[in-house]
Design goal:
It is globular, with a radius of gyration of 14 Å. Helix 1 (about 5-20) runs antiparallel to helix 2 (about 20-35), helix 2 (about 20-35) crosses helix 4 and helix 2 (about 20-35) packs antiparallel against helix 5. It is built from 5 helices and no strands. By secondary structure, the protein is an all-alpha fold.
Length: about 120
């Protein structure tokens, strides 16, 4: 069941590396590498992302932060980052999420909040 979201997150990691959101990409990459997820992008893209993400000590801390997250935290982080990016576009409508995204993915517990991660 988690194969498709992780494939999407891996592609999002590469997109963020390419578009300059290195910090958020580093968090995603830290999780994906630590938990052995990968294969939906070309290995050269993944290697390039690792190289960019490991360029300095601050980014290494972000890699470790991602590695320490559980999958629900990672998805929440990615959604918050996407919301923040969307809100920066003045002509962008608010992000509309399916109702299923508003609840926890494991056991259906409601724990998702709409907040921006300020530790980046």
């Amino acid at each position: 069941m988690w194969m498709y979201p992780f494939s999407t997150l891996e592609r999002l990691t590469i997109h963020w590396i390419d578009s300059g959101n290195i910090e958020a990409a580093s968090v995603l990459l830290g999780y994906l590498d630590a938990h052995g997820w990968g294969a939906s992008v070309d290995e050269s893209d993944r290697a390039r992302a690792r190289s960019v993400a490991a360029a300095d000590a601050d980014r290494n801390a972000l890699l470790r932060r991602g590695a320490a997250m559980d999958r629900n935290q990672l998805v929440e982080f990615a959604l918050d980052e996407l919301e923040a990016a969307a809100s920066l576009k003045a002509d962008s409508p608010p992000v509309q999420r399916p109702e299923a995204w508003a609840i926890g993915w494991v056991g259906g517990s409601s724990h998702r909040t709409s907040r921006r991660h300020s530790s980046l």
